[in-house]
Amino acid sequence: MSSARAAPATPPLPAPRVPPALAVVAVFVVIHLIAAIFVGLGFDEAYYWTWSRHLSASYYDHPPMVAWWIRAGTAILGDNPLGVRILFVLAMAPISAALYWTGALLFDRLTATFAVAFLNATLVFGVLGFVASPDAPSVLFWTLAILALALIYAHGDQRWWLGVGLAAGLGVLSKLTALFLGPTLLVAAAALQRLRVSFLRPWLWLGGLVALLVVLPMLLWNIDHGFMTWNKQFGRLGTPGFKPTSPFEFVGTVFLVLNPAVSILAGFAALLWRRRRPRDAGLGLLLVTVAPMLAFLLVAAFRQRIEANWPAPLYPTLALVGAVGAARVTEALRGRRFLAWYRDIAFPFGLGATIVATFLMINPGNLVPARYDLGRTFRAWGEFSGAVERARGLAGAAWIAPTSYDATAELAFHLRGSGVPVVGIAERQRYVFAPPPDPALLAKPALLVSKGSDATRLQRCFATVRPVAEISRSNAAGEYERFYAFKGEGAKPALFAEGC
Question: Where are the domains positioned within the chain?
Answer without folding.
Answer: 21-361, 377-498
